[in-house]
Amino acid sequence: MKLIDWVKSSPSRKVIPLAGYPGIKLTGSSVRETLENPELQVRSLKVLFDRIQPDGILPIMDLTVEAQALGVKIQMPDQEAPSVVDHPLKSPSDLQSLTVPDPIKSGRMPVYLRVAELLKAILPDVARGCYAIGPFTLAGEMVGVEPLSFLLYENPEFARAAIEFSAQVTTAYLKAQLGSGATFGVILEPTAVILSPKMFNDFCLPALKIITQSIPQPIVLHICGDTEHLLEGMKNTGAQGLSLDSPVDLPAAAKKLPSDLVLIGNLHPVEVMVELSQGEVREKTRSLLSAMSGFPNFILSSGCDLPPETPIENIHALVQIARSI
After folding, report:
1. pTM of this prediction?
2. Could you say which of 60, 197, 228, 299 would form a disulfide bridge with 264 (CB–CB 3.0 to 4.6 Å)?
3. How many degrees, rounded to 5, is the angle at CA 184 between CA 282 and CA 266?
4. Domains annotated on the chain, with CATH
């Protein structure tokens, strides 16, 4: 089923907050334990799901899984999201020595395959997503974002090769998670926000098409920040949905984009979901739903991943309002 058909399959507005980290505090475990233990992660996700009752569930977002599987050094604090601390890809010869990791056995990729499998078992009738880092962002983790930016001009062949290799990694990882039980995939491409429309079309778009053309299940593309300058390119990636962050004027974007392209978003994850009261979250949610009332190709969500400190009551309020309208 196409994503747009699922969105239109019920009269009520679909709602899928980008929530994962807030569920960790419900089980009293550490971030590191939850990212390394699939059973513990699924327990956190199930407790969160039972509390808020969304239309779909996503695993806990981790932007370092693919890089770590490629041998990139990362740091994993107990109570914070992991991050890359080294950028080992310096030359084309370094790239030639790399092989696409096997998701069944490489790094922590098997953790998320198991998460997909367990979520399918306990939530068989729920939309279940999976995450994979985008090719431009993964290339930036291996090369470094600033060096990669220079390579786009100074050595575009090397930059393009690194991005295309990264697309192979993303494709393999998404296919494995979808084969393990996820029903749709989300490509996280935050670094692409720095690109001009031309650079996006030249370097990012072809790599994203490689992924979407290789995978039959619905794919959603998420790029953090203000992506209004990239919407034209994003709609051409082959993704069935675009997850748009809070700086984007969502109704204005909806008017520019095809009616069968699903838009997901976009309440501010901090200024609204963390800092406001439950009543204020309800009002912000009503306002967004009202602005998007003429667009059936819309899933209510947060603009980006919700921080661990997000009050569960605020997430529940977001879902409740969607159910009541």
Report:
1. 0.97
2. 299
3. 25
4. 15-265 (3.20.20.210)
